[in-house]
Structures are given as structure tokens and as C-alpha cells.
């Protein structure tokens, strides 16, 4: 059935279902738009496993991808290029794919110590790292699809670490991954206080334009994305070294360097609807 591309004389509106053929197996019928009810999260650069230990070049489990510049750091969360950033990825471990979010703190700073994760969970410890210097946490829930659209709601992280180099300054961070009418927004609000534990800002207060770090809008009629607010952070600085791009149902954050061994792969994160 994979060879069928067109049925002469049959209007697209008259084709309701092909029995025994999964929607994911139908790649294209000329002139026919995929029914919106069939859309779901299709793929992402990171998944629930690689977000921790990193992606591999040519699927070599013994070799983690590294950026060819900026210190040649590995492509994974809690790595210096991702310092202070919010990374989306698709978790496929549940009954339905869900877009989750990781927030990274002062990655690469050996003087900093993880303290707690009040909402969400600390990211699993990567090979060669310790729980103490795993300064990254992930949402427990994520954005799912229902009836061809993303489900509205908030997915929250509240976590804290100590910045030893500044006299044990505590940083409490509230992170929100919000979906409203197929608009996906990441918010991050920081609170700091010297040498003492502190409470967290509410998720409601964090959802303000002042704390928005990126925003993207998905069109369910065309399966295309629009970048409303671009994330340009690389290695903890908003210098514009990074950028974002879209192609069809895919959104990509691009870094300033390719991965070692590639002349075209500069992805920091990527998510796809299909």
C-alpha cells in the first residue's frame, strides 16, 4: 500500500479512512492535507534518555556528540552550552508522547551545588557527573495532543541550587511550559537571596512577558510553526550566538558550531509535529 499516491477520480474529501493503514505510514497524497486529528509529536533531538547522556554521532553508543567549538562541550542537558536555558524534548515513555521541558542552571560551574527540586524532578545524573553538580530539572508532565490540537495547560518546575562562589547565594527558580491555543511558551523566573533558603515565585507570576525565554506558535491547518520570541542564548549569554529556525512541522534551535564530524548539524534542540 505504500506505493499508492493517488486515486484517480476520487475527491480528497471523500476519502475517510484506509483500513489497516496507520496514519503515520501515509506520507503524502498529492493535493491532500493530512487530517488535523492525526497530528501528534513525531520526534525530537532529545528523548527521555538522550536528554541526560547526550546524542551520539553515527549512533555510536560509546561516543557522545560534541560541539566543534566553544570548548567542545557535549550535546546534552547540564552541559555548558545549555547554561541557563530551557530545552524542550518529547518523552515517549508514557501512553502518549508529551512535550516536556528541562531547565538548566549554572552548568559547568564546579562551585555550585544542587539543593532541591520542589516541583518536577532533578534530571537523571549523566555518565561522569554527580547529583551534586547536576544543575538541571525536568517537568513531570508535558503537552500532549488531543483531537488534532495541543492540550492547554501549565507544566511547572520549581527548583533551587546554591552558588558557592557568591557566598552561598541561593537561587530559587520557577519554570513554566505553557500551552494556550497551540501557542507554546517557556517562562523562567529567578529569585536569589544570600546565604538562606527561600520560597519560590508562583507559576502564575512567572507567566509574564518579562520572564518569557521563547515562544512558538503551531498552525494545525498547515502543520507549520511561527517563531514569536526567539531563544538566542549560548553558554549562558544572550549574545545572539544561537538562533531558531522552522521547516514545516519542525522547530530547531541552532548553535554557532556544528557537531564534530558534521558540516551541517548545529542543533541544540529540535521538536517535530507530524
Q: Look at the structure and give the mean pLDDT.
A: 87
- The span between the termini is 20 Å
Radius of gyration: 20 Å
Total number of strands: 16
Topology of helices and strands:
Layout: E1 41-44, H1 50-53, E2 86-91, E3 98-104, E4 112-119, E5 121-122, E6 136-138, E7 145-146, E8 149-150, E9 153-163, E10 169-180, E11 183-194, H2 203-206, E12 212-219, E13 224-229, E14 243-247, E15 250-254, E16 267-273
Antiparallel strand pairs: 1-16, 2-3, 3-6, 4-9, 5-6, 7-8, 9-10, 10-11, 11-12, 12-13, 14-15, 15-16
Describe the structure.
The chain is an all-beta fold and 274 residues long. Helix content is 3%, strand content 36%. It is built from 2 helices and 16 strands. It has a 6-stranded antiparallel sheet. Strands 1-16-15-14 form a 4-stranded antiparallel sheet, with no helix packed on it. The longest helix has 4 residues, at 50-53. The relative contact order is 0.16. Residues 1-32 have low confidence and may be disordered.
Amino acid at each position: 500500500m505504500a506505493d499508492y499516491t493517488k486515486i484517480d477520480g476520487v475527491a480528497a474529501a471523500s476519502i475517510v479512512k484506509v483500513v489497516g493503514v496507520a496514519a503515520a505510514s501515509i506520507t503524502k497524497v498529492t493535493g491532500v492535507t493530512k487530517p488535523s486529528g492525526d497530528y501528534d509529536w513525531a520526534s525530537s533531538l532529545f528523548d527521555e534518555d538522550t536528554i541526560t547522556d547526550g546524542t551520539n554521532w553515527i549512533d555510536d553508543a560509546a561516543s557522545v556528540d560534541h560541539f566543534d567549538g566553544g570548548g567542545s562541550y557535549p550535546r546534552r542537558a547540564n552541559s555548558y552550552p545549555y547554561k541557563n536555558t530551557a530545552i524542550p524534548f518529547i518523552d515517549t515513555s508514557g501512553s502518549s508522547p508529551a512535550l516536556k521541558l528541562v531547565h538548566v542552571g549554572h552548568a559547568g560551574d564546579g562551585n555550585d551545588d544542587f539543593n532541591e527540586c520542589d516541583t518536577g524532578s532533578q534530571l537523571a545524573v549523566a555518565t561522569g557527573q554527580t547529583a551534586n553538580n547536576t544543575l538541571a530539572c525536568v517537568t513531570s508532565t508535558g503537552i500532549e495532543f488531543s483531537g488534532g490540537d495541543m492540550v492547554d495547560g501549565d507544566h511547572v518546575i520549581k527548583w533551587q541550587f546554591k552558588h558557592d562562589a557568591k557566598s552561598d547565594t541561593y537561587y530559587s527558580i520557577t519554570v513554566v511550559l505553557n500551552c494556550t491555543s497551540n501557542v507554546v511558551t517557556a517562562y523562567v523566573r529567578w529569585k536569589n537571596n544570600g546565604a538562606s533558603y527561600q520560597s519560590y515565585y508562583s507559576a502564575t507570576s512567572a507567566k509574564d512577558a518579562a520572564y518569557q525565554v521563547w515562544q512558538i506558535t503551531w498552525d494545525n491547518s498547515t502543520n507549520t510553526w511561527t517563531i514569536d520570541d526567539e531563544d538566542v542564548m549560548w553558554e549562558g549569554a544572550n549574545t545572539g550566538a544561537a538562533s531558531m529556525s522552522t521547516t514545516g512541522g519542525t522547530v530547531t534551535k541552532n548553535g554557532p558550531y556544528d557537531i564534530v564530524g558534521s558540516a551541517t548539524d548545529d542543533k541544540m534542540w529540535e521538536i517535530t509535529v507530524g
